[in-house]
Amino acid sequence: MPPSRCRTWRLGVDTRLIYSLTFACGAGLAGLAGGLYAPTMTLVPTMGATFIMEAFVTVVIGGADVFLGTAPAGAILAVVKSVMTSWQGQLFGQIGLLVAVIIVVRVLPKGISGFLLRERT
């Protein structure tokens, strides 16, 4: 049993260890993804900037619940972007993403997860 004066234990779990392991797994997966993706394109310092907007849009549309909202949001945005890109080109694919965000935020202010959780209750 941990000493009572140690503030990093919550309900018998060492929270510092959990945070450290979570960060290590996330950093390892990011490094692995970068290593696997690097041979497919030219390496430049700004190569991650193209993904930032899409990741931000996915999180905004997903809502507060990470597990329940992010996967459906990613699937919806993938369909929107691929349809618009194949129909008119890359620029219209990005515009389609932003229009989808505007529509979803206007119709579902709490995101897809807020809509799904409201339907459950």
| E-strand count | 2
Nearest-integer average pLDDT = 82
Query: How much helix is in the residues?
Result: over 70%
Q: Biggest sheet: strands side by side, in what order?
A: 1-2
Kindly, what is the distance between the CA atoms of the first and last residues, rounded to a whole number of angstroms? 39 Å
Structural class: mainly alpha
What's the number of structural domains?
Answer: 2
What is the global morphology? flat
Main sheet properties: 2 strands, antiparallel
What is the H/E string? EEHHHHH
What percentage of amino acids are in beta strands? Answer: under 5%
Low-confidence stretches: none
Give the count of helical stretches. Answer: 5
The Rg value, from CA coordinates, equals 19 Å
What is this structure, in a nutshell?
The protein is 73% helix and 3% strand.
Description:
This protein is mainly α. It has two domains: 1-42; 48-121. The chain is built from five helices and two strands; from the N terminus they run E-E-H-H-H-H-H. It has helices at 15-37, 49-62, 66-88, 90-107, 111-120; strands spanning 9-10, 13-14. It has a two-stranded antiparallel ribbon. Strand 1 (9-10) and strand 2 form a beta hairpin. Helix 2 packs parallel to helix 4. It is flat, with a radius of gyration of 19 Å. The termini are far apart. The model has no long low-confidence stretch (mean pLDDT 82).
